[in-house]
Amino acid sequence: MSKKExxxxxxxxxxxLGKEQYQLYSTEIENLFFRDNIVQNSSVIGLTxxxxxxxxxxxxxxxxxxxxxxxxVPKCSPKDRSMNFYMxxxxxxxxxxxxxxxxxxxxxxxxxxxxDIDLLVVPGIVYNKSGYRIGYGGGYYDRFLKSYMxxxxxxxxxxxxxxxxxxESFDLPVDQIITNKQVIHCKSNRxxxxx
Length: 195
Ligand SMILES: Nc1nc2c(c(=O)[nH]1)N(C=O)[C@@H](CNc1ccc(C(=O)N[C@@H](CCC(=O)O)C(=O)O)cc1)CN2
Ligand SMILES: Nc1ncnc2c1ncn2[C@@H]1O[C@H](COP(=O)(O)OP(=O)(O)OP(=O)(O)O)[C@@H](O)[C@H]1O
Fold this sequence. Notes:
By secondary structure, the chain is of the alpha/beta class. It has helices at 3-15, 19-35, 37-41, 58-66, 140-145, 186-191, and strands at residues 44-46, 70-77, 82-88, 94-98, 101-104, 110-112, 119-121, 126-127, 133-134, 151-155, 176-178, 183-185.
């Protein structure tokens, strides 16, 4: 199956997830996220503002703020498919300008260098256990990750795992995936050849 077919099939599967299950699983992932050592030791964390059926992030962002951590979110540049991360202290610093996604308003938020982001939460639609993923097809994260050297992690519903994800030359894997059931250490899976 092609990347596009795998992506579309998963989108269909996720779209029928009931709101209650969506909330329950998202909260389970959120709780595992906050128990994680890397999360606890990171002060600046990059996330996207989720839209259904992505694992919820607004609740996570609010809890990070409550803990005194810094939250940075991406603004996309469609012309060169690059992203810049801005620090937000409130959801009022967000606006919709691109693809109906909430992004930081650069007039209301400050730009942060990638090297200052301790942990980056990478969005996606389908993942394998070695951390390779299929996203929305923009290639934004594939490009960004080339020069991002700190910790990476994805949040996913257990049903988003599939061994059908075959990496292409430009794909870069995440270090860890947190699902509603488990924490997957992708780096060691890659070393052991587990897909
Ligand atoms: N909530 C959330 N925010 C996010 C992401 C995400 O996955 N989730 N992104 C994760 O990367 C970035 C935005 N990703 C995007 C990916 C694709 C397209 C886009 O233009 N898609 C075209 C098809 C592109 C193609 O075929 O090459 C389209 O849908 O028409 C836009 C944004 C940043 N913000
Ligand atoms: N590092 C890169 N440099 C240049 N082009 C790239 C790079 N990475 C990906 N691309 C291009 O971007 C397009 C989208 O890539 P892909 O289908 O892997 O996106 P995705 O992983 O689903 O999206 P995302 O990374 O935004 O979550 C592809 O056509 C690919 O050729």
